[in-house]
Amino acid sequence: LERQRLGVLIADVAGKGMPAALLVHKMQGIVQSTKSRETTSSSILTKLQENLAVTLPPELFVTAASMVFDLRLRQVQISNAGHVPVLLKRGGSVRKIKPNGIWVGPGSVGMFEKHLEMVNLDLKKNDVFFMFTDGALEAADGKGREFGINRIRKLLATAPGNARKVVKQCLDEITQFSGSVAQVDDITSVAVRIL
Q1: Which tens digit of pLDDT belongs to each residue from 52-90?
Q2: Backbone phi and psi for residue 173, each to the nearest 5 degrees, phi listed first
Q3: What is the crossing angle of helices 163-178 and 148-158, to 10°?
Q4: Which residues are bridge partners to 156 per DSSP?
Q5: Which of 8, 31, 36, 112 is deepest in the core (most CB within 10 A)?
Q6: Running DSSP on this structure, what letter comes out for residue 195?
Q7: Are 36 and 9 contacting, i.e. CB atoms less than 8 angstroms apart?
């Protein structure tokens, strides 16, 4: 984004196959075409709701989370539209950040905006922000146990500081946990480290 601002967005479409893939493609177009005008974490999600609410079939909806980093002010805004929490590793602790918000889908923009919150945080050196889709939580082992948020929090607490290594370690541990059990849902993750 403009003026030393960085936007990060993660989203997950409820559904599979071609309809879900086409919706992701449409969302990418919306974000790219509006990024110069929508520069807060909440306005990015609201723009998705405005553009998708009238065209989405009732069975499809999207969860999403957005972060906007202001590198000059060293602050971040975080908003969440029904998505899993963003995790913040600061020092040796990991906390969940999940502002209120309902998913993007059929419905009014007014109702969406009414429920959408935005959290503002000051950035500290070596903070790591970790975003992921629910496929990471729901990855199961041979006994039907899910990987879950607590395992993700533990691995993030001990993960190396490098953002790429954080993502790799998460995916490696989920793969090891699942063993030979087939992956049912896609897994996407994004890490941002403050230098």
Answers
A1: 888 887 778 899 999 999 999 999 999 999 999 999 999
A2: -70, -35
A3: 140
A4: none
A5: 112
A6: -
A7: no
